[in-house]
Write a structure and sequence with these properties.
The complex is a heterodimer of chains A (113) and B (113).
Chain A: E1 5-7, E2 10-13, E3 19-24, E4 31-37, E5 43-50, E6 53-57, E7 65-68, E8 75-79, E9 88-95, E10 103-104, E11 108-112
Parallel strand pairs in A: 2-11
Antiparallel strand pairs in A: 1-3, 3-8, 4-5, 4-9, 5-6, 7-8, 9-10, 9-11
Chain B: E1 4-6, E2 11-14, E3 19-25, E4 30-38, E5 44-50, E6 55-57, E7 60-65, E8 70-75, E9 84-92, E10 102-103, E11 107-112
Parallel strand pairs in B: 2-11
Antiparallel strand pairs in B: 1-3, 3-8, 4-5, 4-9, 6-7, 7-8, 9-10, 9-11
Classes of the chains: A mainly beta (113), B mainly beta (113).
């Protein structure tokens, strides 16, 4: 069964450092998303991406965040200068055209110290 | 009022019990409704979509009440393996984003022997 993959599974970084979280969506999917979940809190939408551009972003997705699809398979989330409050699980999701079912990757646990 | 609201529980039930969760949403323009299951520190996994007519999948039944703006999930004959957090998710109609999901905070279910 095709699945969304994410790397790394756990990233520890110091405050102020840049991190790049990587995702490989399911190959025939066209819509891509990043969500995050702070420990003990709900899953929150960050950004959606379609046709090589951002289609929607939340208030959380400020200038410190950026997304990119550098090639035909990877979808990345970059946090330019991490803050302690960026510590969370980051989930990538993808969606096929005409479908309602978003498939989530296993997540990257980001710890900012 | 929160966009999507769930009773966080926890619900502790014995094996074989029937348990029901409710979820309310505030935006009447909401279009699509889902129940996801999330195991500890794992990604959300789609349990079932919720249709206006109600739908059933084995021991699970989902219902939608648009007039009252709530959805429900009923689990019959609970198994130990049903222990998880159940997330309600809503997608708004229209907008620029295809399939952005808004999640509730989740309801924790523990099934004990």
């Amino acid at each position: 069964e095709p699945e969304v993959t994410q790397t790394p599974s756990h990233q520890v970084t110091q405050m102020g450092q840049e991190v790049i979280l990587r995702c490989v969506p399911i190959s025939n999917h066209l819509y891509f998303y990043w969500y995050r979940q702070i420990l003990g809190q709900k899953v929150e939408f960050l950004v959606s991406f379609y046709n090589n551009e951002i289609s929607e972003k939340s208030e959380i997705f400020d200038d410190q965040f950026s997304v990119e699809r550098p090639d035909g398979s990877n979808f990345t989330l970059k946090i330019r200068s991490t803050k302690l409050e960026d510590s969370a699980m980051y989930f990538c999701a993808s969606l096929a055209s005409g479908s309602y079912e978003q498939y989530f990757g296993p997540g990257t646990r980001l710890t900012v110290t | 009022r929160k966009e999507v609201e769930q009773d966080p529980g926890p619900f502790n039930v014995p094996e074989g019990a029937t348990v029901a969760f409710n979820c309310t949403y505030s935006n009447s323009a909401s279009q699509s409704f889902f129940w996801y299951r999330q195991d500890c520190r794992k990604e959300p996994k789609l349990l079932m979509s919720v249709y206006s007519s109600g739908n059933e999948d084995g021991r699970f039944t989902a219902q939608l009440n648009r007039a009252s703006q709530y959805i429900s999930l009923l689990i019959r004959d609970s198994k130990l393996s049903d222990s998880a957090t159940y997330l309600c998710a809503v997608k708004k109609a229209g907008g620029t984003s295809y399939g952005k999901l808004t999640f509730g905070q989740g309801t924790i279910l523990t099934v004990h022997p």
